[in-house]
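Give me the fold.
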Amino acid sequence: MKKKLLALALALTMVLSLGACGSKPAEDTTPDTTPETTDTTPDTTPETTDTEDTGSTEETPTYEPATVRVAYMPNLGSASSLFTAMEQGYFEEVGLTVEPYQFSGGPAEISAMASGDIDISQIGHGAHSLCIQGDAAVFAFDQLSQADAVVANKAKGIESAADLKGKTVAVATGTSSQIILQFVLQDAGLTEADINTVEMNVEGMTAALVSGQIDAAATWSPNTVTLAEAMGDDYLVLGTNNDYTDQAAFPSSFICTSEYAAANQDILVRFSQAILKAQVYRAENIDEVAKMLAAKLDAPEDTMLAATGEGNWQGTVDCMGDFDTIRGYYEAQQQVFLNNGTVTEEVPVENYVLFDVMQAAYDAYSAQ
C-alpha cells in the first residue's frame, strides 16, 4: 500500500531534505543509585596569557561549578554524545560534573524529571509527544534516529507486514516503538485493533521473541542486532525508520522540565556546548565511540559496532546552526503525532523547543 503523505507540505519539504542535512510510563522508573560520574574541578581564578610583543592579555573563561543528573537509554542513539562528552572532558571544560542514570524509555525519564530525581534526559522520537503536551522542553537536537524497526519470527508464518493480522506483537507504548509499529501497520492496511498487542520494554521483547512467546516486536537497536544474531534465518524486518523518511522525521533530543530551564539556562547552554563538540567527535569516530560505549554499558562490543548505523551522525553535524532545518524536523515530527491522534491539537514548535538555548550554545561552541 502506498505510504500516506503528510498533510503539511512545509513539513514534507523539510523531511525530504534529511539525506542532505541530515503515554504510558516504562516500568523501570528508579535510577541507579551509584551513578558513573565525571569529576570536574574548574579553576575559579581566570588564567591569562601575556603576549610580550603586543601587550595583549587573553582570559580563559571560568565557570561556576555545577552537577547535572542526566538520564539516558543504553544504546548508541541515546548515550553516544553524552558519554563521548564525558570521556573527552568536554563537560569538564565548561565546569560541569555529569551523573548519568540509565532508564528503559523516555516516558520514565520524564516522570523522573517531574519528581526531581533527574535534571536532563535524552529521549527518542516517541516521548516527544509529551514535550508537545507541555511535560518537558527540548533544548538540544541530538540526531535523527534510524534505529527503530518492527521485526518478526518467520517461523510463526509471517512473511510480510500483512501477516501480522491476528498475531501477538510486543510494543512499548509512548515510545518510538509504538510509532514505528503504527507506520508499518498502516502500510499494510492494518491498525492496532487487528493485532494482539503486548506491553513490554524493549529488553523484554528480545527474550520473548527469541523464545517464541510473541510473534513480532516493535523495538530498536541494538536489540535488533541481538535478535538477528539469535534468530538467524527466522529473523524478518518488516519496516524501519528509513522506510518512512518521505513521511516523517524521527529526531532525538536532550530535554528538561520548563521549571529547570527557567532556573538554569546557563547550565543548559554549557551542557549543549559540550554536546555539540561531542557530536562532531562522534561523527568522525563512530566505531571508537561504539567500543567505548560497549565498555561503559557492559555490552558486547560486536553488538555495539553492528549498531553504528542507527543514527544520522554526520547529518547532525551538517545541520549545526541551521535552525530552520532543525525547526522543520520538529514540525514534521509533530505532524506524525497529529496524524496518529497522539497529539490532538497543533502546538507552535517554539512553545516547547528552546531555540534561544540552541543559538547561545552554538555561538559559544563556534567561538571556541
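Residues 1-34, 36-57 have pLDDT under 50 and may be disordered.
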